[in-house]
Design goal:
This protein has 199 residues and is of the alpha+beta class. The chain is built from two helices and eight strands. The N and C termini lie far apart (75 Å).
Amino acid sequence: MKIPSGAVYLSRRTFLARSSTVLAGVALFGTRVLGQAPALWRSDMQLDVRFRLLSPPYRSANPYIAVWIEHPDGRPVRTLGLWADMRRGAQYVYRLARWNRWPRFPDRSQDHPATLDLARAISRPTCAAGTYSLVWDGRDDLGQAVPLGTYVLCIEAARERSDYALVRGEIVLDGGSCDEILTGASLIGDVDVSYRPSA
């Protein structure tokens, strides 16, 4: 058989080998390309967060505290708790620098009105040293169920004119139960995290 100039001849064996490689690639990545929906958070599971707010070595006002879940790239998912005295205005809420990095809702502008709206809606009075617990039910700030995957738990604390602390830790949620301990930082003690069936 005469092969045209510039053409590449493939033997039957080479053709079959290359074809199988292509088909394997389609099998591996095809579901991603075609958009198979990721598994959602099971409704019978919850994430328990337990942390300790430490006593300062001197007399001072209670700190402002935010506890939330974010994506690994920093985009917010759900604010679980906010302790802030909103009667004194927003100036000290802005000391929670990371919590304020993004607006809380994606359809709002970057000038933070949504963040303050949320702060006014969910904030509790500031609290003294002690142990506190929160639960995440697997929904975002808009009430939508989130997919399983990797998330980051954040706890941020700031006093009005002095101390500041931020604890962040990745949590891999694949559907099975898991327990994690995140190392504390200055104002915040170690954080116990448990993904388990709802009580």
